[in-house]
Specification:
Elements: E1 4-10, H1 14-22, H2 39-49, E2 51-57, H3 70-93, E3 98-103, H4 109-121, E4 127-131, E5 133-134, E6 137-138, H5 145-153, E7 157-161, H6 168-171, H7 177-195, H8 198-201, E8 206-209, H9 216-227, H10 237-242, E9 245-247, H11 256-260, E10 269-270, H12 280-291, H13 308-312
Parallel strand pairs: 1-2, 2-3, 3-4, 4-7, 7-8, 8-9, 9-10
Antiparallel strand pairs: 5-6
Helix pairs in contact: 3-4, 4-5
Protein name: 6-methylsalicylate decarboxylase
Organism: Trebonia kvetii
EC number: 4.1.1.52
Length: about 325
């Protein structure tokens, strides 16, 4: 059986883990800690879950741990180079099995533009990984417009990933942010991109929204209706969502997948494992459930001609053959 392409997989280098610890992120987003990762462990999980290829990215908290000072920007740029070089080396060592979604040192815009060019032109990155917010500044912030313009000019694939929203230490009520805050922050980010007109201004960016669209399918019509009451141009949020892509990482069943398919066609779906933040046994269990889901019976999650995975990640198409 042809394997799926995993559009939502992560990697953790030893240096990255050490720098997270040193910056106070020993328990990122309220989780017990950063999981271990290795190529061998990833390949084992891929084999057990029927995954042919995986696009690797750095998860929350990203690479910029401080304020927008010169010193912090330099540190973030250096760490971004490290993890992107490591990811590119992994992809080169396992041709067709791994791709790279490169991290940027935002909110440092100049550093982000430089690393974006390096990742695409020198490392051959398959996508760019963006967090929903950077120290409380969301992707629709006008300060980030140069980065989005460059992504648009390159028709880049963007793998969006949530991080803790501002004030998460209060709104999470002592629970890990990935439980519900991540879903709300993804939703907040995409709604803001739509209402600001950012998505319309940058139509060539191909966005992959994680976790089966988070809460977006549930609130889409409410956002559309309320946008009509405000000054400016109303936003047809369901139509906006129909033009994005979605990975199925996390608990897409039994409810989220059905809600997502109300606003997005099956040709917009991609598989996502979220390994190693989702442990290996859970990856296998969730993948098995998706394979048995009637709603996915005719959906191609492999990187084969005509699939979303092949359109977005053509370099990895050979792995699915």
């Amino acid at each position: 059986m042809t394997g799926w392409l995993d559009a939502h997989a992560h990697y953790v280098t030893e240096r990255y883990a050490n720098e997270c610890w040193a910056a106070g992120h020993a328990h990122p987003d309220g989780m017990p800690g950063l999981p271990g990762w290795s190529v061998a462990a990833a390949l084992d999980v891929m084999g057990a879950a029927g995954i042919s290829a995986a696009v690797l990215s750095v998860s929350s908290p990203g690479v910029h741990f401080g304020n927008d000072s010169l010193e912090e920007n330099r540190a973030a740029r250096d760490l971004a180079r490290h993890v992107n070089d490591a990811g590119a080396d992994i992809a080169a060592s396992q041709p067709g099995r791994f791709g790279l979604s490169a991290v940027l040192p935002l909110p440092d815009v100049d550093g982000a533009l430089a690393e974006l060019a390096r990742a695409c032109d020198e490392l051959g990155a398959d996508a760019i990984a963006l967090e929903t917010n950077y120290h409380g500044r969301y992707l629709g912030d006008p300060a980030f417009a140069p980065v989005l313009a460059e992504l648009d000019a390159r028709a880049a694939v963007v793998t969006l990933h949530p991080t803790s929203p501002p004030g998460a230490e209060h709104t999470a009520l002592g629970r890990p942010a990935p439980m519900i805050e991540f879903l709300f922050d993804t939703t907040r980010c995409v709604v803001d991109l739509a209402l600001r007109g950012t998505l319309t201004r940058h139509p060539q960016i191909r966005w992959i929204v994680p976790h089966a669209g988070a809460v977006l399918p549930i609130v889409a019509h409410r956002v559309a209706g309320m946008s009509m009451m405000q000054a400016g141009t109303p936003v047809d949020m369901p139509a906006v969502l129909a033009g994005l892509y979605y990975d199925l990482a996390g608990a897409a069943l039994p409810v989220a997948l059905g809600a997502l398919l109300e606003v997005a066609g099956p040709d917009r779906l991609l598989y996502g494992s979220d390994f190693p933040f989702t442990p290996a046994p859970a990856v296998a269990q969730l993948a098995a459930a998706l394979r048995d889901a009637p709603a996915l019976k005719n959906v191609r999650l492999e990187a084969v001609p005509g699939s979303a995975a092949a359109a977005l990640f053509p370099r990895l198409q050979a792995a699915a053959s």
